[in-house]
């Protein structure tokens, strides 16, 4: 059983930056592909970014390309999401998720993820 704990959310002005972290415990972190998803009020949960368990290949949803960056530190059992040039439409609860040895295309599908964090709120507003 893998436990995931996100941190780093908060309130930021449009155009600002924010960094999210997700610490994993209870499993072999390096065997899991890690993803970030988000859910805004009254909207479906959507894929943001993911990084594979092997070779650290990254994938991004279109809105995240060139603005967000996902990285991982296996020594610290942590995955990060750096978000730049934030927009009001980025406001959502951001979730970290883990999927065992999952690669593309399943890595972008939320149903393929076995473990989820509790989420962290990101609000972009002036």
List the helices and strands and how they pair.
Blueprint: E1 3-7, E2 10-12, E3 18-25, E4 32-39, E5 46-51, E6 58-60, E7 68-73, E8 78-83, E9 92-100, E10 115-116, E11 120-124
Parallel strand pairs: 2-11
Antiparallel strand pairs: 1-3, 3-8, 4-5, 4-9, 5-6, 7-8, 9-10, 9-11
**Gap from first CA to last CA:** 40 Å
- Strand runs, count: 11
What is the radius of gyration? Answer: 13 Å
Unreliable residue runs: none
**Envelope shape:** globular
Description:
The protein is an all-beta fold. 0% of the residues lie in helices and 48% in strands. The chain contains no helices and eleven strands. The chain has strands at residues 3-7, 10-12, 18-25, 32-39, 46-51, 58-60, 68-73, 78-83, 92-100, 115-116, 120-124. The strands form two sheets. Strands 2, 4, 5, 6, 9, 10 and 11 form a seven-stranded mixed beta sheet that branches. Strands 1-3-8-7 form a four-stranded antiparallel beta sheet, with no helix packed on it. The protein is globular. The mean pLDDT is 96.
